[in-house]
Specification:
7-stranded mixed β-sheet, 263 residues, alpha/beta, 9 helices, Metallo-beta-lactamase, Chain A
């Protein structure tokens, strides 16, 4: 049995939950420990049952609560060496036993969950996305991506379900209140994926067999859930893909638990 959901996903904080049989993991912990614990309670899960916290990269919206949760519940934190170096001052002291390392591109297991990491283009020390192999299912988390390159595309192909970044609408961002340097960062090769590009990626993956799409990491300022959904919906339908028949499409929200996917 697989249970997957976004506890929170957005520019203000990110944390995802995956359970396979009796193995439970968090992917990132970028909000307060209190809010993450409350979100787990909302889906009838307990923080004390978490087996591991996986960290994609060291930005605060992905690590804010990781250290506190690890210390409170004695949970190992997994990250690559460069991410550990970049985040260790921010998450506080973690016991040596709970400091776990992987190399980007590694394939490793945590109990019932097999995990493959892949590098992503983002302005962090060594950011990664995750593939989770659960029996014959592949679930992918691909956010904080400045652009889609060959490695990312090959890594996310053949996923049964994907949480894909749909961070911003380009025109809203360009005309919005952010300073130009921040706009340039978001639009750059190591920034964030736009709604339009998310739609193109979703259409490509749907043609390859992906059935479940969750759009995440939406900007509070430069996007709207309805706009992200409609942009990707239009791209899929323009490519002959029927929402609700061929694929399912959801937007996961930045401030609340989203629909629980059970497979």
């Amino acid at each position: 049995m697989i249970k997957f959901c976004s506890l929170f996903s957005g520019s203000s904080g990110n944390s995802l939950f995956l359970k396979v049989n009796n193995t439970c993991i968090l992917i990132d912990a970028g909000l307060s420990a209190k809010r993450i614990i409350e979100a787990l309670d909302a889906i009838d899960e307990k923080a004390c049952d978490i087996d591991a916290i996986l960290i994609s990269h060291e930005h605060s919206d992905h690590i804010k609560g990781a250290g506190i949760i690890s210390r409170k519940f004695n949970i190992p934190i997994y990250a690559n060496h460069r991410t550990w170096d970049a985040m260790q001052n921010d998450i506080g002291k973690i016991s040596e036993y709970n400091r776990r390392f992987f190399e980007s591109g590694d394939l490793f297991s945590i109990n019932d969950i097999c995990i493959k990491t892949f590098r992503i283009p983002h302005d962090a020390a060594e950011p990664v996305g995750f593939n989770f192999f659960c029996g014959n299912r592949k679930i992918t988390v691909a956010t904080d991506i400045g652009h889609i390159n060959k490695n990312v595309l090959e890594s996310i192909e053949n996923s049964d379900a994907i949480l894909l970044e749909s961070n911003h609408d380009v025109e809203i961002l360009k005309s919005g209140p952010y300073p130009w340097e921040l706009k340039r960062r978001i639009l750059g090769e190591n920034g964030h994926l736009s709604n339009e590009m998310a739609g193109k990626v979703a259409a490509y993956l749907a043609a390859k067999g992906t059935k479940i799409f969750m759009l995440g990491h939406l900007s509070k300022v430069n996007n709207l859930p309805e706009l992200a959904y409609q942009t990707v919906y239009d791209e899929l339908t323009d490519n002959g893909i029927k929402i609700g028949t061929d694929v399912t499409l959801d937007v996961v929200l930045r401030d609340r638990v989203s629909r629980v996917l059970e497979m």
